[in-house]
Amino acid sequence: MMAALMIGTVGLSGCSGGGNGKGSVELLNVSYDPTRELYKDINAAFAKDYQARTGKTVSFRMSHGGSGKQSRSVIDGLSADVVTLALAYDIDAIAERAKLLPANWQSRLPDNSAPYTSTIVFLVRKGNPKGIRDWADLVKPGVQVITPSPKTSGGARWNFLAAWAYGKKAGGSDAAAQKYVADLYAHVPVLDSGARGATTTFVERGLGDVLIAWENEALLSEKELGAGKFDIVVPSISILAEPPVAVVDANAKAHGTEPVATEYLKFLYTPQGQEIAARNFYRPRDQAVLAKHAATFPKLDMVTIQDFGGWGAAQKRFFADGGVFDAIYGGQAKRR
Amino acid sequence: MSGSNPTTIESPWARWTLIGVGFLFLALFLFLPLVMVFAGALAKGWQVFLDALVDPDALAAIRLTLLVAAISVPINAVFGVAASWAIAKFDFRGKSLLISLIDLPFSVSPVVSGLIFVLLFGAQGWLGPWLTEHGVRIIFAVPGIVLATVFVTFPFVARELIPLMAEQGRDDEEAARSLGASGWQTFWHVTLPNIRWGLLYGVLLCNARAMGEFGAVSVVSGHIRGLTNTMPLHVEILYNEYDFVGAFAVASLLASLALVTLGVKTVLEWRFGIHRAGAAH
């Protein structure tokens, strides 16, 4: 029986290989949760553009999930041609553990390889019944905050760091920042594992008073589900979230898709790509496109990941086992 | 039976209360959710419902689910018959160990079952480098999904057959052998007819689980749309995309498959019951 199984296995693996037919290529883009709508549009636009220029057809396979989980899958062999994840750390992990792309991947494309950005804002229920204006209002008695776990969700790490930035600015010290963030997580009734799960908890299940969310997620939920059901509150300070993109060299070389994969990512930086990003509620890098959508993207004070010493340092200090988040959340678990 | 020869002395009031509570419970926890699935699927009318089912990604998910069931159920049926035959008809050392091993997939969380295969066949796993070298893809491809499903649905057929075959004993087989039948003849003409209803029942349960498995498959699938998404995974994806009608449409198709299985099972149980009663005479 084992032999029969093995034969079946080998036979079947044939049909799952990457498309290598002449004149047509298939790219596998492994992405994180909130980019589904964005890449649906980008893929269609790029395929059209590519065919017009070269006469070749390109088709896409998409895989979406929590950023950390997706990174883990690529390390374990999910053969992505390109990865478009929530934070550089998750692509660093692929470079470091599986050596599928060089460690300097982030310098290969402009703007830290992040063609679009976002920031962290609050989504509150219509009319803002709890009167939430800024971070300080999230830790008032009786306010329930929804945010996913920064252990598993890339988006949640940005949330955490944005909260930390506020705590530090308001209190003036790291100790004050830690106290603020600990207070904040005490107001979280349920830690979802991914950004989309947290959105569903807030929007569909109706839990909590505030969703700390990516600006793009907040704008999208407003459009998809709740025109008139939710308000977006932009806090006084937030963080510039830079979701990066990269070609996974080893996989793309094996599939013979390296040139088209590179072009695909460069397309994100073109005015057309930037316009699609803006229409899907990601802040474009292109100033002209940004100016056109200024009504959607209000200006606010933003720190960057560099203020935390880059993702490697931030990961180690805040989110690694035994880090600041464990100290805060472990402490709470004991208190309960 | 209870009408002509009551076995309890409870008052009719108590009896009807018990029956009522039972029905209310079933209605609340089984029937209502099922109705909600179909109501959600048809919330925007038949056209939207049908569109969700003929979407290329949905069709691919349906095809993959049927393919996975078509491979894993026969494998487990053959294994289940072989294992229960060995356990019920022969004595050997390590028999109880084998029984425990068969039960293993029931006691292990499906997520862990999935991770086992990632650790074995993943790029960083034990066999990963060898597989990469030879261009064989298991994890994040159809073979991995089949393997995970086979593992999770392993015990269904065997668990159904072991008690049945143990109860039937070895007399029929011994009689056949003493009359000169070969091993295969004994199996085809004596053992198989005796267990056929139990076997079908086990296969149906196995099939239901194979089509519905989420946890283990989710770990090894890689969630590539139109390629490695089974129906349960596709339901989750649609739901997360705010496509609630689509999610419930595919979910209702899964539920319908389960209902058909349940219907066939009830019929079989009825036939099986008669058969067993007949055998006891």
TrEMBL record, chain B:
One of its GO terms (cellular component) is plasma membrane. PROSITE patterns: ABC_TM1. Signal peptide: none annotated. CDD domains: TM_PBP2. Keywords: Cell inner membrane, Cell membrane, Membrane, Sulfate transport, Transmembrane, Transmembrane helix, Transport. Its main location: membrane. It is a multi-pass membrane protein. One of its GO terms (molecular function) is ABC-type sulfate transporter activity. Pfam families: BPD_transp_1. Gene3D superfamilies: MetI-like. The chain crosses the membrane at residues 21-42, 62-85, 97-123, 135-158, 244-264. Part of the ABC transporter complex CysAWTP (TC 3.A.1.6.1) involved in sulfate/thiosulfate import. Probably responsible for the translocation of the substrate across the membrane. This is Sulfate transport system permease protein CysW. It comes from Sphingomonas yabuuchiae. The lineage of its organism: Bacteria, Pseudomonadati, Pseudomonadota, Alphaproteobacteria, Sphingomonadales.
